[in-house]
């Protein structure tokens, strides 16, 4: 249902407020450059520091700006099941095409707890839902067997697999088959994950190079493996540079260098250290982005 290069879009701020003008410009730029879907209010969108009112507004604004040209998949996860249900209900009411739900963080639920959490959200809200596994940020790894159990639910349609393990993505693809869409959660693993059955990526890098990420995925799908590999190698320095510090610090800095947003962050995130910023600028210059 959701395939291709789906951007985990940043939330631009200016003077402490969501900068809707800059945000609208980013959305238009993404669509014009072939991005296959917009994912607001994810980790990259600093959902952890958005108020509920801001979260609702960002989702609704995205839906209104996109105007059905590509799917909108709203981040609506939480470490509280009730809150995740509430955010997912709002995503549906706002007109989002789907929801992306991160595994509950800090709580460290068991695999059974993860299953019951996602099952409760899926039963409460009739909206296509993508599971999001990223143990480096949440402290819990959702295993392939748990994904397979959830894939039996009709509105659990995909998984953003960010464990960093191609083997884990392979097991999900092999076990679930066409019941669920596997999307890479690590930009650098987009190509290898597609080689074992992935259908695309929810990507940070597309914030900066949307056309290239879309072309990487499209080339692989079309069987142009050499072209996909060439794009992968060309983007590799940026894959690394955008994670010199905690995401989304570097990607906001990069967009600021490009003049697309004010690279303002919300505490506890803060601006890049000078050494890392200089290294990021060097990569950006080498790639002719600035």
Structure report:
This protein has 290 residues and is α/β, with parallel strands linked by helices. The chain has one domain (4-286): TIM Barrel, CATH 3.20.20. 47% of the residues lie in helices and 13% in strands. It is built from twelve helices and ten strands. The protein has helices at residues 20-32, 52-66, 81-94, 111-124, 135-138, 144-150, 166-176, 190-195, 210-221, 225-241, 249-257, 274-286; strands at residues 4-8, 13-14, 17-18, 37-39, 73-75, 98-102, 129-133, 156-161, 181-184, 200-203. The model has no long low-confidence stretch (mean pLDDT 97).
Range of helix content: 40-55%
Number of domains: 1
Number of strands: 10
CATH level-two architecture: Alpha-Beta Barrel
- Listing every helix as H and every strand as E from the N terminus to the C terminus, the arrangement reads EEEHEHEHEHEHHEHEHEHHHH
**Structural class category:** alpha/beta
CATH superfamily: Aldolase class I
CATH topology assignment: TIM Barrel
**Helical stretch tally:** 12
Tertiary shape: globular
Radius of gyration: 18 Å
* Rounded mean pLDDT score: 97
Can you tell me the residue ranges where pLDDT is under 50 for at least 5 consecutive residues?
none
């Amino acid at each position: 249902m959701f395939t291709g290069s789906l951007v985990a879009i940043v939330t631009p701020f200016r003077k402490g407020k969501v900068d809707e003008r800059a945000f609208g410009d980013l959305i238009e730029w993404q669509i014009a450059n072939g991005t296959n879907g917009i994912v607001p209010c994810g980790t990259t969108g600093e959902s952890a520091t958005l108020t509920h009112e801001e979260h609702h507004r960002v989702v609704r604004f995205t839906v209104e700006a996109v105007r059905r040209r590509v799917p909108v998949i709203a981040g609506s996860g939480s470490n509280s099941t009730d809150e995740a249900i509430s955010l997912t209900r709002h995503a549906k009411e706002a007109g989002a095409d789907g929801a992306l739900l991160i595994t509950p963080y800090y709580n460290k639920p068991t695999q059974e707890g993860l299953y019951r959490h996602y099952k409760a959200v899926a039963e409460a809200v009739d909206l296509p839902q993508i599971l999001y596994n990223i143990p480096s940020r949440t402290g819990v790894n959702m295993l392939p067997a748990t994904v397979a159990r959830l894939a039996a639910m009709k509105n659990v349609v995909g998984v953003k697999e960010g464990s960093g393990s191609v083997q884990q993505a392979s097991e999900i693809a092999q076990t679930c088959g066409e019941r669920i869409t596997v999307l890479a959660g690590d930009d650098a693993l987009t190509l290898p994950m597609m080689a074992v059955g992935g259908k695309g990526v929810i990507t940070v890098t597309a914030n900066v190079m949307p056309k290239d990420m879309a072309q990487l995925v499209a080339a692989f799908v079309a069987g142009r493996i050499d072209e996909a590999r060439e794009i992968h190698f060309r983007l590799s320095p940026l894959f690394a540079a955008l994670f010199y510090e905690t995401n989304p610090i570097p990607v906001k800095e990069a967009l600021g260098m490009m003049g697309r947003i004010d690279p303002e962050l919300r505490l506890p995130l803060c601006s890049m250290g000078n050494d890392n910023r200089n290294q990021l600028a060097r990569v950006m210059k080498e790639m002719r982005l600035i």
